[in-house]
Amino acid sequence: MEVLFHFIFELIKISMLGCIYATLILLTFKIISRFQPDSWFDRVSKKKLRLWFLSGLFISTGLFFNMFSYWGDHGLGDSARVPIGHSRSIQQIDGTTGYIQDEGPVRMLSMDKFIVTDDFIYGSVDSQNENYDGKYFIYDLVNNKVQTFNQEKYFIRYLTILNLNTKPDYKDFDYYYAEHWHGWRFFLLA
Questions:
Q1: Domain locations in the chain?
Q2: Fewest Cβ atoms nearer than 10 Å: which of 80, 83, 126, 137?
Q3: Is the pTM of this model over 0.70?
């Protein structure tokens, strides 16, 4: 049910953004046509309703498809998603633990606190993780491989080998979600 309500909210948000962007396009065309009479902008801006409707339709359609793209999908309802690069994403359901679920050799990896870099995610494994033994993990995004460690000293040693920060400030899923989906992405995209 949450998914349905969120989807309806997103459709309303998309239509409102389409109307706002269409109005801005119409105003831009009108301003340009004042300075350049008899131009293409002047001819198109004379049919105001048609310009406004078509530009709003195209923008709304683009925003709708963006909502389901890799970089635009932030989850629906009780699910949340953050793209992290290399066609992978961190997901969360019901506001609990962040996880990565991928096809191939990587099974569902539940994460507690972690760091996201360009090519690696590393940190502590969630205590209820069923698929991996160990308290710490390093996920190689490029090669799609997970290495787990039971002891912190081995984990730190491997981080040193990979030239990764051995004393970072680990964050949870909510931090990365807020970092990625705040500001202009939240207000200007669906």
A1: 2-67, 80-181
A2: 83
A3: yes
